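Progress note, sequence design subtask.
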């Protein structure tokens, strides 16, 4: 699958700038092959550990948002949420990684 994405990018590059040199193409192919081999390796899953009562504050589009960490969930605007992503999505109207949105990732 990753190969298709890179092939599309290479084709677009070639249409705009001409073909890549054989040496550069070999390097790209090697990088893609390495990515395809290693992307499925299990990585250590980091667990977010924030003490209950902690306030997470984020400013977005000039407005300040505050979330309180409570036992096994988060509270925002008087409602409880299971994830920071759900809150970030509500605030922004788009999909976000909640940990990144609130700066705890």
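Output:
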């Amino acid at each position: 699958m990753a190969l298709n994405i890179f092939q599309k990018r290479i084709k677009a590059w070639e249409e705009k700038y001409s073909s890549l040199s054989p040496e550069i193409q070999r390097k790209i192919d090697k990088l893609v092959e390495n990515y395809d081999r290693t992307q499925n390796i299990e990585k250590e899953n980091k667990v977010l550990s924030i003490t209950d009562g902690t306030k997470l504050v984020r400013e977005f589009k000039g407005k300040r948002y505050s979330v309180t960490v409570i036992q096994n969930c988060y509270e925002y605007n008087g409602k409880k949420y299971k994830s920071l992503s759900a809150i970030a999505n509500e605030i922004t109207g788009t999909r976000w990684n909640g940990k990144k949105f609130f700066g705890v990732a």
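The chain is about 45% helix and 20% strand. Work on this subtask will continue into the next period as scheduled.
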